[in-house]
Amino acid sequence: MAENRTICTKNNIDYISIRMAMAKGARTVEDLVEMAGICAECEGCKAEIEGILSSVCGCKNVSLAEVVNAVKNGADTVDKVGEVTGAGTGEDCGKCKVLIQNIIELGR
Ligand code: FES
Ligand code: FES
């Protein structure tokens, strides 16, 4: 389970704020500038932010691409996405389920 930490030190934006913005539909660095308030001015955070954006479930190591693919192939509930990809099935966790629900709603 990833713990909270500051990602954008300039604007003091933490990991949880970024995940919350993703659960509301943020999928790109530009979205995160707008929705989470990261500065996106430094090269240093770029790789880490791209990594966060491309991952859905840290417990089961499931990527955004895998979840989007499962949704495109008919998984239309969080449970079905979990059956196909494992996302959201981490023991005593499930904190990525809000994001999975949002991916189902947006289809991306
Ligand atoms: S310090 Fe803001 S994105 Fe790196
Ligand atoms: S991040 Fe823990 S179940 Fe997905």
Structural notes for this entry:
The protein has a two-stranded antiparallel ribbon. It has a two-stranded antiparallel sheet with strand order 3-4. It has helices spanning 15-23, 29-35, 46-54, 64-72, 78-85, 97-106; strands at 6-8, 13-14, 55-57, 62-63. The protein has six helices and four strands. By secondary structure, it is mostly helical. The two termini are 24 Å apart. The protein has one domain (6-106). The chain binds FE2/S2 (inorganic) cluster (2 copies). One FE2/S2 (inorganic) cluster (FES) is lined by residues 8-11, 38-42, 44-45.
List the uncertain runs.
none
The helical percent reads 40-55%
Bound molecules: FE2/S2 (inorganic) cluster
| Strand count | 4
Q: Major sheet: order of its strands? A: 1-2
Number of domains: 1
Structural class, please?
Answer: mainly alpha
- How large is the share of residues in beta strands? 5-15%
Write a short abstract of this structure:
This protein is mainly alpha-helical and 108 residues long. It is built from 6 helices and 4 strands.
Keywords, separated by commas or semicolons:
108 residues, mainly alpha, two-stranded antiparallel ribbon, 6 helices, binds FE2/S2 (inorganic) cluster
Helices and strands in order:
Blueprint: E1 6-8, E2 13-14, H1 15-23, H2 29-35, H3 46-54, E3 55-57, E4 62-63, H4 64-72, H5 78-85, H6 97-106
Antiparallel strand pairs: 1-2, 3-4
Helix pairs in contact: 1-6
The structure holds FE2/S2 (inorganic) cluster (2 copies).
Residues 8-11, 38-42, 44-45 line the site of one FE2/S2 (inorganic) cluster.
